[in-house]
Amino acid sequence: MLFRKNRVAQLLKQARSADSEQRKSAWEELWRLENPSAAEARTALEAARESYTVPGDAILPYEDSQELLIHVALEAPDPSFAPIVARDFERYSPKARAAACRLLLAINIGESLNLLRELLLQYAPAGIANTSLDLKTQRQAEHLFPDVLVLLSDPRVGMLRFSLAQECLEAFRNGWFSARQFDDYASHVLTAYREVEAHLLPHQNPEALRTIWDNEKYLRWRWAGGVMLDLMGYFPTPEVLEALQQALQKYTDPYLLLYAVVSLVCYAEVDPQVIYTVAACAEAREQLYEWLETYDRLDLFPAEFREQRWLAESQMVSWLIFPTELGRPPDEIEWMGAYPVLTEEGEAEVHLFRFPMDDEPWEAGIAGPYLLSEIPTTRHLGGTFSQFYKWDEYTPEEHVERILRLLGTVRRVQTPAGERIFWRFRADEEEA
């Protein structure tokens, strides 16, 4: 019988070499290690109880050796790892603790999930780096909530509080819990929100809101504010509802107003002017429409913005805000028309926009496609995109077709209504 050598053990030995190049190579190979065996993953986890010095010129996504080693273990999680994490958790760095939490979640048995809850309660105030657990099942959520909600009112937990709040919010949205189920913990939710509010209120003026996209600190608290205002809708105690009503008066940022509106709309009348303010904001419009549709309250959505062009504009802006694209809304955006396409789901249309950034020339992008049978709708078929071609370089029709060709195969076919673009999401299909 052939036994594979333990690559992790060999690389850890090399990581202790007196030669800096060998140490660098060892850590880089540990990061790139593919398909570790259970034995190799266990070796990495056992080694993570100690902290190594990683060469500063090593090309790694982690500066922390413990975090890196636990990520190796994450590639082959095993129930036997839970006792090791329990034994060594206190020795881990904050980033390694966050990785260990994800490891316990990946092991996904009652013992590891119970341990995760207890470690969060014990060590989050002492230092666990902010992390997304990305809960996958109701069972996982039920092992954590509502117990860990007490951490929301402890400022020592830092931004991890709001990631845990996000996990709880997603559990509510998934239907794993029902509104009012955890009302006994509403005071913790409200305490966390009050801290967020204190960071946000000084910026609720036109001058400050014009520069928010250059203010990383405000954007972090803005995200946390959205999470907490949204979560508060599932804790509708009198104190929470009062805070939500006050939010409608205190905030001018439409993003924050959006979450206050959707949390209140099931429990109280909301000023139509506030709803109009949210709908008028391209960043918030699409989400407002979706949530009011979910709550069967589209009667509250301003008629002025129900046309598909306005929902498409919101989708275009949301795409541009994504960090890998512009990372912010464009300075201006203009609708340049709707263009018919045929998709495998039926006749649809894409919407063409142009937008500038700073002093740069106008550029082109499309949103959609939107099925004609569903309009007005926020459901698009995955074609919202821009290659940031300069607007003056092509005709509008050329912009549409060039962007579609980047996304998949495009060919022209004759239909009873005339020649249209037939768009398939099959990049490997030959174009006709």
How would you portray this structure in words?
It is a single chain. The chain is of the alpha+beta class. Among the domains are: 178-306, no CATH class; 308-424, no CATH class. 49% of the residues lie in helices and 10% in strands. It has 18 helices and 5 strands. It has helices at residues 7-15, 20-32, 38-47, 65-74, 81-88, 94-107, 110-127, 138-144, 160-173, 186-200, 206-209, 216-232, 238-250, 254-264, 272-279, 282-294, 308-321, 396-407; strands at residues 334-343, 346-355, 363-371, 409-415, 418-424. A hairpin with a 2-residue loop joins β4 and β5. It is globular and about 70 Å long.
> In order across it, which strands form the biggest sheet?
3-2-1-5-4
User: How many distinct helices?
Assistant: 18
State the order of secondary-structure elements, H for helix, E for strand: HHHHHHHHHHHHHHHHHEEEHEE
- Could you report the average pLDDT, rounded to the nearest whole number? 91
Oligomer designation: single chain
What is the CA-based Rg, rounded? Answer: 26 Å
* Main beta sheet: 5 strands, mixed
Give the overall shape, derived from the CA principal axes. Answer: globular
Protein topology:
Blueprint (H helix, E strand, L loop, with lengths): L6 H9 L4 H13 L5 H10 L17 H10 L6 H8 L5 H14 L2 H18 L10 H7 L15 H14 L12 H15 L5 H4 L6 H17 L5 H13 L3 H11 L7 H8 L2 H13 L13 H14 L12 E10 L2 E10 L7 E9 L24 H12 L1 E7 L2 E7 L8
Parallel strand pairs: 1-5
Antiparallel strand pairs: 1-2, 2-3, 4-5
